[in-house]
Amino acid sequence: MFVERSDMKFKDFHDGTTRVQLGKLPGIMGCTMTFNKGAFTVPHAHDDHLQFIYFLKGKFEITCGAEKRICLPGDCMYADYNELHGSFALEDGSMLLDVHTPMREDIDKDFDYTLAEKEK
Questions:
Q1: Nearest Cα to Cα of residue 7 among 119, 116, 118
Q2: For residues 83-103, average pLDDT
Q3: 113 pLDDT exceeds 90?
Q4: How many CB atoms lie under 10 A from the CB of residue 27?
Q5: Nearest to 103 by CA among 4, 22, 44, 11
Q6: How far lies 50's CA from each of 12, 46, 47, 54, 102, in Å?
Q7: Using CA atoms, how far apart are residues 116 and 8, in angstroms rounded to an integer?
Q8: How confident is the model at residue 63 (pLDDT cuts 50, 70, 90)?
Q9: Beta pairing partners, 50
C-alpha cells in the first residue's frame, strides 16, 4: 500500500498542535504530531491498543508508567496496554511519529481534511 502526501489526513487542534495521518490498515495506523512549546497530552492509558512513539524533532518530557524522561530525536518509547503515558513539548516544532496497533478508529474519524485540501 502506498499513500501519497496529498491524500494524508490533517488535524489542526488550534493550540499549535497538528496531526497528520500517514496511513492506516485495520491492524495499524501511523501519524506524525507536531507541538509548540508547552503543548501536552494529558497522561492517559488505553486498554484496547499498544502505542509506539519515535521522536523526530525537538525535545519532550515524557511520562511512561512510573517513569518520566526527556526524549530527543532518535529516542523512542512503547506504551503497553493500560500503561499511563503523556507528553509535554519543551520546544516549538517538536515532532513525533505515533504508531497505534490496532488502528484507532476514534482518531481516524477526527481529521479535518486531507493535506491537498489544506494546501489549496
A1: 116
A2: 97
A3: no
A4: 10
A5: 22
A6: 24, 8, 8, 14, 7
A7: 8
A8: very high
A9: 101
Average pLDDT of the chain?
A: 94
What cell does 86 get? Answer: 503523556
List pLDDT tens digits, range 2-49.
Answer: 999 999 999 999 888 999 999 999 999 999 999 999 999 999 999 999
Kindly give the pairing relationship between strand 113-114 and strand 9-12.
antiparallel
**Hey, CA dihedral for 9, 10, 13, 14, is it positive or negative?**
negative
C-alpha span between 58 and 71 (Å, rounded): 9
Contact criterion met (CB below 8 Å) for 55 and 73: yes
In the block, which residue shows the cell 494524508? 8
The answer to whether residue 101 scores a pLDDT higher than 90 is: yes
Read off the pTM. 0.92
> How would you list the strands of the sheet with 85-89, edge to edge?
40-44, 85-89, 60-64, 67-71
